[in-house]
Write a structure and sequence with these properties.
- Helix content is 31%, strand content 28%.
- It is an alpha+beta fold.
- The radius of gyration is 19 Å and the shape is globular.
- The two termini are 19 Å apart.
- It binds decanoyl-CoA.
- The site of decanoyl-CoA (MFK) has 20 residues, from helix 3, strand 6 and strand 9.
- It catalyses: hexadecanoyl-CoA + H2O = hexadecanoate + CoA + H(+); dodecanoyl-CoA + H2O = dodecanoate + CoA + H(+); (5Z,8Z,11Z,14Z)-eicosatetraenoyl-CoA + H2O = (5Z,8Z,11Z,14Z)-eicosatetraenoate + CoA + H(+); (9Z)-octadecenoyl-CoA + H2O = (9Z)-octadecenoate + CoA + H(+).
Amino acid sequence: MSGYIQEDIDPEELAHRTELASAIAGSVRDLIDATVRTEVGETDIAEARRLIAAATEILRKDQLPGPFGIRFNADGTKRSWGNAVLGRRNPIAPPVDIRHETEHSWLEVDLGPQYEGPAGLVHGGVLALVFDQLLGSTAEFQGVPGMTGTLTVRYRRGTPLGPIRGEARVDRVEGVKTFVTGTISVDGEVTAESEGIFILPRWARGEVPEAMRKSVGEG
Ligand SMILES: CCCCCCCCCC(=O)SCCNC(=O)CCNC(=O)[C@H](O)C(C)(C)COP(=O)(O)OP(=O)(O)OC[C@H]1O[C@@H](n2cnc3c(N)ncnc32)[C@H](O)[C@@H]1OP(=O)(O)O
């Protein structure tokens, strides 16, 4: 499948590139937050836009022709830097670090004002986004990966903006389908529950490419 690119980079160089990716995405994330919450007037907005346009021009000097894709080293170390949830170089991504334990996976992330839906609460679509990645990565880590076929979310109560915790585990595997369940909670109280059915697509049946099997160093 296109978009999966083997690109062996030695650890020192990779650490350096990761630092650069995180730094620029962090700056833009800060800019997004500042933009959502700014109260400055027309003159400051005009000046800010001029500086942002100048920064954009610098970044445009050398661009990929399309999306980042998923890049991996021969040892399986994976980079999903454009990913909307995990992406180290994607300012839209919170970004999330998913931790994998033997039986379950989890994440903790602070969702700020740029993820607002109802006043002061996280947008339901953002929670679905987080669930999709958390449950999908959980299936992948357990060696039963798939594309999201169906994702259901039950919103039990509003999720306040701020720190959230997500947890997920594989419930069962039926042929090419992996059923994963998860929760999002705030201060120990579950605010949303989800079930995902992850299906190993026809094109990946047979041998699952190693790059898709394990979430090693993703994001
Ligand atoms: C290997 C890749 C790892 C990547 C992990 C990244 C995690 C991130 C999660 C995502 O965001 S993925 C992006 C959002 N999802 C998609 O874009 C998926 C788009 N849909 C498809 O590609 C296909 O419809 C899909 C792979 C889900 C199923 O197509 P197939 O042609 O492989 O399914 P097939 O017809 O062979 O059916 C296999 C089984 O799945 C069932 N099935 C098919 N589509 C389903 C569906 N949508 N929901 C639930 N079950 C479904 C189907 O009934 C059948 O059940 P049984 O085995 O019991 O007979």
